[in-house]
Amino acid sequence: MQEIRVQLKAINDVKDFVEIVSRFQGEAVMKTGKYVIDAKSILAIYSLDLSKPVTLSLENPGREELDSLQRFIVE
Protein backbone atom coordinates (compact mmCIF):
# COMPACT_ATOMS: atom_id res chain seq x y z
CA MET A 1 0.00 0.00 0.00
CA GLN A 2 1.23 3.47 -0.85
CA GLU A 3 -0.01 6.40 1.22
CA ILE A 4 -0.45 9.93 -0.09
CA ARG A 5 -2.13 13.01 1.36
CA VAL A 6 -5.05 14.42 -0.63
CA GLN A 7 -7.46 17.29 -0.16
CA LEU A 8 -10.92 17.60 -1.69
CA LYS A 9 -12.00 21.23 -1.44
CA ALA A 10 -15.28 21.28 -3.37
CA ILE A 11 -18.23 19.05 -4.19
CA ASN A 12 -16.99 18.66 -7.76
CA ASP A 13 -13.59 17.57 -6.42
CA VAL A 14 -15.25 14.68 -4.56
CA LYS A 15 -17.18 13.62 -7.67
CA ASP A 16 -14.10 13.80 -9.91
CA PHE A 17 -11.94 12.02 -7.32
CA VAL A 18 -14.37 9.09 -7.00
CA GLU A 19 -14.64 8.78 -10.80
CA ILE A 20 -10.85 8.54 -11.06
CA VAL A 21 -10.28 6.20 -8.10
CA SER A 22 -13.12 3.89 -9.17
CA ARG A 23 -11.13 2.98 -12.28
CA PHE A 24 -8.19 1.68 -10.19
CA GLN A 25 -7.85 -2.10 -9.98
CA GLY A 26 -6.62 -2.37 -6.38
CA GLU A 27 -8.06 -1.36 -3.06
CA ALA A 28 -8.28 2.36 -2.23
CA VAL A 29 -9.05 3.57 1.30
CA MET A 30 -9.06 6.97 2.97
CA LYS A 31 -8.01 7.45 6.58
CA THR A 32 -8.53 10.33 8.94
CA GLY A 33 -8.27 10.00 12.68
CA LYS A 34 -9.89 6.72 13.68
CA TYR A 35 -11.98 6.44 10.50
CA VAL A 36 -11.11 4.28 7.49
CA ILE A 37 -13.46 4.37 4.51
CA ASP A 38 -13.68 3.06 0.94
CA ALA A 39 -12.27 5.79 -1.33
CA LYS A 40 -14.47 4.53 -4.17
CA SER A 41 -17.65 5.46 -2.28
CA ILE A 42 -18.91 9.02 -2.67
CA LEU A 43 -21.20 8.69 0.36
CA ALA A 44 -18.38 7.39 2.54
CA ILE A 45 -16.16 10.31 1.55
CA TYR A 46 -18.86 12.79 2.52
CA SER A 47 -18.85 11.30 6.02
CA LEU A 48 -15.28 12.59 6.54
CA ASP A 49 -14.14 16.02 7.66
CA LEU A 50 -12.87 17.36 4.34
CA SER A 51 -11.71 20.70 5.71
CA LYS A 52 -8.25 19.12 6.18
CA PRO A 53 -6.17 16.79 4.02
CA VAL A 54 -6.78 13.05 4.47
CA THR A 55 -4.55 10.03 3.83
CA LEU A 56 -5.27 7.95 0.75
CA SER A 57 -3.87 4.41 0.69
CA LEU A 58 -3.63 2.74 -2.71
CA GLU A 59 -2.79 -0.87 -3.44
CA ASN A 60 0.08 -1.01 -5.96
CA PRO A 61 -0.61 2.26 -7.80
CA GLY A 62 1.08 2.81 -11.14
CA ARG A 63 2.61 6.06 -12.34
CA GLU A 64 -0.45 6.73 -14.50
CA GLU A 65 -2.79 6.36 -11.51
CA LEU A 66 -0.71 8.72 -9.37
CA ASP A 67 -0.55 11.25 -12.20
CA SER A 68 -4.35 11.20 -12.54
CA LEU A 69 -4.65 12.22 -8.86
CA GLN A 70 -2.03 14.97 -9.03
CA ARG A 71 -4.45 17.89 -8.62
CA PHE A 72 -5.69 16.46 -5.29
CA ILE A 73 -2.27 15.65 -3.78
CA VAL A 74 -0.90 17.92 -1.06
CA GLU A 75 2.47 17.77 0.67
Describe, in plain words, how this protein is organized in 3D.
The chain has helices at 11-21, 42-46, 63-68; strands at residues 2-6, 28-32, 35-38, 54-58. The radius of gyration is 11 Å and the shape is globular. The relative contact order is 0.31. The model has no long low-confidence stretch (mean pLDDT 90). With 75 residues, the chain is an alpha+beta fold.
What's the CATH first level?
A: Alpha Beta
Structural class call reads: alpha+beta
Strand content: 25-35%
Strand order of the largest sheet: 1-4-2-3
Largest sheet: 4 strands, antiparallel
Write down the overall mean pLDDT: 90
Instruction: Assign the CATH architecture.
Output: 2-Layer Sandwich
Count of strand segments: 4
Output the number of helix runs.
3
Please outline what is shown here.
The protein has 75 residues and is of the alpha+beta class. The protein contains 3 helices and 4 strands. A 4-stranded antiparallel beta sheet has the order 1-4-2-3, with no helix packed on it.
Summary keywords:
Histidine-containing Protein, Chain: A, 29% helix, single chain, alpha+beta, 3 helices, 4-stranded antiparallel sheet, 75 residues
Q: Mind sketching the topology for me?
A:
Elements: E1 2-6, H1 11-21, E2 28-32, E3 35-38, H2 42-46, E4 54-58, H3 63-68
